[in-house]
Automatic annotation (TrEMBL):
GO molecular function, one term: phosphoric diester hydrolase activity
Residue stretches making up the GP-PDE domain: 41-280
Biological process annotations from GO: lipid metabolic process
UniProt-recorded name of the protein: Glycerophosphodiester phosphodiesterase
Signal sequence, renumbered to the chain: none
Protein species of origin: Aquibacillus halophilus
Length: 285
């Protein structure tokens, strides 16, 4: 172990520290370790394989699974009647024939919305999914990277109860929770200290990150999610020196994927998980 520790890369050191912080001590015998447990780079399918199918639809998530993405990214919002659903925009106006905010509508109304038509005729009729439908479909052999978009209606407890109901492993990184809201992440932490949390940074905050702010984030989160435009070598080093993982969003161009890998980020959100996987598997660290 000592010799192994001496030759691991900086990224792996960060990960080992993280795992010890999270008090992960073992994996169930016979189960393969997740990439995140091994300190390896992860490919996060941003709203599914959303370059090829409308975001957050079953088609998009199925494609991401077929492409072997490490994580399915899901933006979660609550319906008027308190059901967590997968959708990014707060307003329906841009990509549907409906108007107004998600939270104005009950689930039975939400289910009437077509979220496929804007992407292409082939996808007409695609429906908004509940988080539960996604868990039911993909179960425990998938890893989930869940963003708490709005922090209303007790979303943290509702999502947490679903994680338990679907028997997801909450201590090995099978589920990662991300949010721009520190309060929301802290509420999740109060429900379960082991779930890895990622603090999303607004661009201006990422560009002006102080050591003090990083230390505050380190006290509760496993890493930061940051716009790739704000990622520099100094940023990555600063985060790693504070035992924080760096996950860059949202990277769809091969050139930028390469740049991010060179800078040593620990994962990327992408609409093209097939492209990123192929590149990252051939990348020499
Ligand atoms: O969750 C971070 C990443 O998904 C980028 O943000 O706006 O696409 O949810 P957004
Ligand atoms: Ca997101």
């Amino acid at each position: 172990m000592k010799e192994f520790t001496m030759v691991i890369t900086m990224k792996k050191k960060v990960m080992l520290l993280l795992l010890s912080f999270m008090t992960i001590t073992h994996v169930v015998s016979g189960e393969e370790k997740l990439k995140i447990e091994k300190g390896e780079f992860i490919t996060i399918a941003h709203r599914g394989a959303s370059a090829y199918a409308p975001e957050h639809t079953m088609q998009s998530y199925k494609l991401a699974k077929e492409m072997n993405a490490d994580y399915l990214e899901i933006d979660v919002q609550m319906t008027k009647d308190g059901v967590p659903i997968a959708y990014h925009d707060h307003k329906l106006d841009d990509k549907t024939d409906w108007k107004g905010e998600i939270e104005q509508y009950r689930l039975d109304e939400i289910k009437q919305i077509d979220i496929g038509k804007w992407f292409g005729e082939d996808f007409q009729g695609a429906k908004i999914l509940t988080l539960e439908e996604i868990f039911k479909r993909f179960g425990t052999d998938t890893n989930y990277y869940i963003e708490l978009k709005k922090t209303n209606k007790g979303v943290e407890k509702t999502v947490y109860d679903l994680l338990l109901k679907y028997d997801l492993n909450l201590s090995n990184g099978q589920v990662i929770i991300q949010s721009f809201s520190q309060d929301s992440l802290l509420r999740m932490k109060s429900l379960n200290v082991r779930i890895p949390l990622i603090k999303l940074l607004e661009d201006e905050n990422a560009l002006n990150l102080t050591e003090q702010k990083l230390k505050e984030i380190t006290s509760y989160a496993a890493g930061v999610g940051v716009n790739y435009k704000a990622v520099t070598k100094d940023f990555v080093d600063l985060a790693h020196n504070n035992n924080l993982l760096v996950h860059a969003y949202t990277v769809n161009q091969l050139k930028v994927m390469n740049e991010m890998l060179e800078l040593g980020v620990d994962g990327m959100f992408t609409n093209k998980p097939d492209v990123l996987l192929e590149l990252s598997l051939s990348f020499t660290y």
